[in-house]
Amino acid sequence: MYELINEISRWAIPLTLLLVPLIAMLRGVSVFETFVEGAAEGFTTAIKTIPYLVAMLVAISIFRASGAMEVLVHVLSPILDPLGFPPEVLPHAVMRPLSGGAALGIATDLIATHGPDSFIGRLVSTMQGSTDTTFYVLTLYFGSVGITRYRYAIISGLAADLTSLVASVFIVNQLFR
Amino acid sequence: MVNYVWLGMIVFGILVAGANGQVEVVTRAALEGADKAVKTSLNLIAIITFWLGIMKLAEAAGLVRALARLVRPVTRFLFPGVPPNHPAMGAIIMNLSANILGLGNAATPMGLIAMQELQKLNRGDPRTATSAMCTFLALNTSCITLIPTTIIGIRVMYGSTDPTAIVGTTIFATACGMTVAVIVDRMLRIFYGRQG
Question: Using a CB-CB distance cutoff of 8 angstroms, which residues of chain A are in contact with residue B45?
């Protein structure tokens, strides 16, 4: 099963790159000009996201470097300990919505320390694969079109992250404890 | 909401740093954050420029429209405010497909196109997110993942005897997350009132 999925993901992009221009050409599209036109839009989009990302990453960076992260972890751990949630993994859970790179760093460190096939190693692997850098995605996507009022997007994004987190702890406890 | 979260992280961070007697780290952290943001955006230029070129071709060839027609029953339920033939629909579908396959760096540019198309449908204040945008982002961040490629790579690196043991648990966890995302999104959509 995994082999098949792996093969699909290996071919997905090369096939797209082969078929899309080919079909476009057969449909009478001037392929080179159309590509350049789309690419020009891409350039402006990327530039437009800079101020939004600066705002968000500055706040996240201060929050982390100041030790505020540790305070939050400390406050949360008495609630989570009884749920089969090892305190070692808590920094990862708190960091995940804020910074993909930092969360991956914590995950790698835990896997290196406890071993990939340990309970903690499997739990943090599942968490890393199943939750997302919600704040980064929201900032980037909304920033690219100039949206500053997010309405309820943060609430539903974090609700989904929290659910994936709880589900990870549950299923890994069931299967690998 | 984002205003409070943002301000909260800065204020709380500076207070904690001050209490720890190392308030000077704040200055460095702020500038490092800014530096990382600009570098991320610049790195994105290459990949977004490339994928938006390909997407424009797919759109001109009518491929995006065909794909959108295929999954119309699902999208009609999830995005009642978006016309089924609108280019936004195609971009949303391509973004979610890339997420499912774990092709993270192909997903982002398509997500940005989806946002631009959704913004064209924004009949209210252009600075305020529409319901369709909130639904899209909820799905995007919670999307089912079939192959968590990066973490499998790290498990291999550290000598796991069964690196893909976590594929099943990941699918389970993301399926739960996505279900809740759809439910919460639908509830909040009613609570916040219909805006696009």
Answer: 42-43, 46-47
How far is Cα B40 from Cα B43, in angstroms, rounded to an integer?
5
Question: Would you state the structure tokens that stand for residue A50, as one six-digit string?
Answer: 């800079």
Collect all residues with Cβ–Cβ distance below 8 Å to A58 and sequence separation of at least 6: B10, B29, B30, B33, B34, B37
Asked whether the predicted pLDDT for residue B102 surpasses 70, the reply is: no
> Residue A20 and residue B127: Cβ atoms within 8 Å?
no
Q: Which residue of B has its CA nearest to A147?
A: B127
Q: Among A19-28, B22-31, B53-62, which is the least confidently predicted range? A: B53-62
Tell me if A111 and B20 make a contact (CB, 8 A cut-off).
Answer: no
Q: How confident is the model at residue B51 (pLDDT cuts 50, 70, 90)?
A: confident
The answer to whether the CB of A3 falls within 8 A of the CB of B34 is no
Q: How far, in Å, CA of B148 to CA of B141, rounded?
A: 14
Environment class of A7 (CB within 10 Å of its CB; exposed 0-12, middle 13-18, buried 19+) = exposed
Q: What residues in B contact A143, CB-CB < 8 Å? A: none
Nearest to A51 by CA among A134, A146, A138, A133: A146
At residue A1, does pLDDT exceed 80?
A: no
Q: What's the mean pLDDT in A14-18?
A: 88
